[in-house]
Design goal:
Keywords: Amino-acid biosynthesis, Histidine biosynthesis, Metal-binding, NAD, Oxidoreductase, Zinc. Catalyzes the sequential NAD-dependent oxidations of L-histidinol to L-histidinaldehyde and then to L-histidine. InterPro entries: Ald_DH/histidinol_DH (IPR016161), Histidinol_DH_CS (IPR001692), Histidinol_DH_monofunct (IPR022695), Hstdl_DH (IPR012131). Belongs to the histidinol dehydrogenase family. The chain has helices at about 30-40, 45-55, 65-75, 80-95, 135-150, 170-175, 190-195, 215-225, 250-260, 275-290, 295-300, 315-325, 335-340, 355-360, 400-415, 420-430, and strands at about 5, 105-110, 110-120, 120-125, 150-155, 185, 205-210, 230, 235-240, 265-270, 305-310, 330, 350, 390-395. With about 425 residues, the chain is an alpha/beta fold. The strands form three sheets. The protein has a six-stranded parallel sheet, with helices on both faces. The protein has a five-stranded parallel sheet with strand order 6-5-4-7-8, sandwiched between helices. A hairpin with a 2-residue loop joins strand 2 (about 105-110) and strand 3. The model has no long low-confidence stretch (mean pLDDT about 95). The structure holds nicotinamide-adenine-dinucleotide (NAD), L-histidinol and zinc ion.
């Protein structure tokens, strides 16, 4: 079922040889464009119709009433509540440490630049919920936004017919636990458009964050600029770099764990060991068949986006996983910590046999909203920084400006923008000497 890709003996950029094409969001842009346009033009009316079409639910209104959040929390299973509470506390402890203090640099006597970290004003947080419920994604979105000090935050998640057209009750309960009371029952590309353009019931947001399927990720790429976005956190990916010290049962379990998210999920093993490759194939066959979502897992593992990649040695493997830039990268080698320290491109790195991705999904304290599709080469996962902007505040006195005047004048002249120099000269003349 899972294919082998033999990169042994090949040099050069491995990107073209790696499996990924199936999850390229650019192929879906034309499909989400009319959806987003419809929301821009017709607002709530379009949201209601699109929800009926894609989610099979006729919404009486797009906003979830406050009473539904309270009753979801009241009915929440105590074990799930305790687990969510633990997840919230661990995530909060990590994200609280990410907060940056403002810094003031005295560039010259009388001249300072302060970097002031200002939270985004209003954010829309996407919580997936088409095939499954993702209350853990409520935690991963809301905690960093709260720690950053975002004043206005709204959550949206697809409605589910079996819950009377509301998002999954555990998702609603997680919102209630975190004190979020603005929640919408809208999913997919139309939800991203709702935050980008606003609609009658939902005020437009400055930024939308959160994971989702290919439609959600495509809408984020399409509307970037109309609205700020975080990473393109699309269909899940796991890459495992392993040698023959790795336990094949652990490797296979982790590949299956992420394949159960989506038929487009990518599970990739990179190894120099043909022996491990063979054992993992056997484990996969057994596990994939025994798992609850076996059809989805089988489709994901046999898809063009998944594979077992054979490499010459672990150095070659490191080059390959860096080129692939997976959302999640597990390192299961004899020297796992050293190898992990050398990784440059991954959404998150999981080191050694006891740090599986599914720990990070729920309860490591790290964030699970991570870049996919190779975007880990330039974009980080969700964090407090995602919701903050560093604003430079410049304050020079007359003497400091006078000292800088000749440099401004010279650069302004070099760029043929003399009015720039004149704006300084109007205050202090063109000279170098200090204050009046
Ligand atoms: N990268 C990350 O950080 C991360 C984290 C968690 C989950 N995920 C991913 O989130 C996704 C969850 O997917 P999901 O589908 O369960 O929920 P989802 O909420 O992402 O998507 C469901 C929505 O998709 C829309 N949709 C369905 N079929 C459509 C079609 N043919 N055309 C247009 N729109 C359509 C519907 O409106 C529906 O509400 C998975 O791909 C999973 O791997 C990613
Ligand atoms: N693995 C997902 C990130 O791609 C996150 C998640 C949520 N729930 C379970 N897993
Ligand atoms: Zn997961």
């Amino acid at each position: 079922m899972i294919s082998r890709i033999d990169l042994r003996g090949s040099s050069g950029d491995p990107r073209a040889l790696l499996p990924r094409a199936a999850t390229d969001v650019s192929a879906s842009l034309d499909k989400v464009r009319p959806i987003c346009e419809d929301v821009r033009e017709r607002g709530t009316e379009a949201l209601v119709e699109l929800t009926e079409r894609f989610d099979g639910v006729r919404l009486p209104g797009i906003r979830v009433p406050r009473a539904e959040l309270d009753s979801a929390l009241e009915s929440l299973d105590p074990g799930v509540r305790a687990a969510l509470q633990e997840s919230i506390e661990r995530a909060r402890s990590v994200h609280a440490d990410q907060r940056r203090a403002d810094t003031t640099t005295r560039v010259v006597p009388g001249g300072t630049v302060t970097e002031r970290w200002v939270p985004v004003g209003r954010v829309g947080l996407y919580v997936p919920g088409g095939r499954a419920a993702y209350p853990s994604s409520v935690v991963m979105n809301v905690v960093p936004a709260q720690e950053a000090g975002v004043a206005s935050l709204a959550v949206t998640s697809p409605p589910q017919a079996e819950f009377g057209g509301l998002p999954h009750p555990t998702t609603l309960a997680a919102c209630a636990m975190l004190g979020v009371d603005e929640v919408y029952a809208v999913g997919g590309a139309q939800a991203v458009a709702m935050f980008a353009y606003g609609s009658g019931e939902c005020r437009r947001a400055d930024m939308v964050t959160g994971p989702g399927n290919i439609w959600v990720a495509s809408a984020k790429r399409l509307l970037k600029g109309v609205i700020g976005i975080d990473a393109e956190a699309g269909p899940t990916e796991i890459a495992v770099l392993a040698d023959d010290t790795a336990d094949p049962a652990y490797v296979a379990a982790d590949l299956v764990s992420q394949a159960e998210h989506d038929v487009l999920a990518a599970s990739v093993l990179v190894t120099p060991s043909t022996e491990l490759a063979g054992k993992v194939e056997a484990e996969l066959a057994a596990r994939a068949d025994a798992t609850r979502h076996r059809d989805r897992v089988a489709e994901a593992l046999s898809g063009r986006q998944s594979g077992i990649v054979l490499v010459d040695d672990l150095d070659h493997g490191l080059t390959v996983v860096d080129a692939y830039a997976a959302e999640h990268l597990e390192i299961m080698t004899a020297d796992a910590a050293d190898r992990a320290a050398a990784v440059r491109n991954a959404g998150a790195v999981f080191v050694g046999p006891y740090s599986p991705v599914s720990l990070g999904d729920y309860c490591a304290g790290s964030n699970h909203v991570l870049p996919t599709g190779g975007s880990a080469v330039h974009t980080a996962g969700l964090s407090v920084q995602t919701f903050l902007r560093g604003v430079h505040v410049v304050e020079y006195d007359r003497g400091a400006l006078a000292a800088a005047a000749p440099h401004v004048a010279a650069l302004a002249e070099a760029e043929d923008l003399p009015a720039h120099g004149e704006a300084v000269a109007a205050r202090v003349g063109g000279g170098e000497e200090g204050s009046r």
